[in-house]
């Protein structure tokens, strides 16, 4: 298999890249294991989504607290408050 530098030097445009030779095999060609018993579709649809599904990731993001953003917001508000108080003090003394 060629190295990335060999691939990059041999190509002139991104359209000429051999993506199919570098990429993983197509998913339809993968042999998935057969289920061991009957599949209860209603029960499967009622189950809570797993962590690594799209819906599970959205739920996890909602539960996660954006601490960094809140801290930054507080710092910005404190700085704005100091600036306003400083501005008010300079206007009263004039």
Question: What's the gist of this structure?
Answer:
The protein has one domain. 57% of the residues lie in helices and 0% in strands.
Describe the fold and architecture:
By secondary structure, the protein is mainly alpha-helical. It has one domain (4-93). The protein contains five helices and no strands. The protein has helices at 4-10, 19-22, 41-46, 54-63, 67-93. The mean pLDDT is 78. Residues 1-31 are annotated as: Disordered. Residues 17-27 have a biased composition (Low complexity).
What topology does this entry show?
Elements: H1 4-10, H2 19-22, H3 41-46, H4 54-63, H5 67-93
The major beta sheet can be summarized as: none
Percent range for β-strand residues? under 5%
Class from secondary-structure proportions: mainly alpha
How far from one another are the termini? Answer: 77 Å
Shape: elongated
Region (Disordered): 1-31
Biased composition (Low complexity): 17-27
Q: What attributes does this structure have?
A:
94 residues, mainly alpha, 57% helix, elongated
């Amino acid at each position: 298999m060629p190295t990335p530098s060999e691939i990059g030097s041999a190509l002139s445009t991104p359209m000429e890249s051999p993506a199919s030779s570098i990429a993983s095999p197509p998913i339809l060609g993968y042999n998935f294991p057969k289920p061991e018993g009957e599949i209860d579709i209603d029960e499967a649809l009622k189950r809570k989504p797993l962590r690594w599904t799209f819906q599970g990731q959205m739920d996890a993001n909602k539960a996660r607290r954006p601490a960094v953003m809140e801290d930054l917001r507080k710092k910005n508000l404190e700085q704005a408050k100091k600036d306003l108080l400083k501005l008010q003090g300079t206007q009263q003394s004039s």
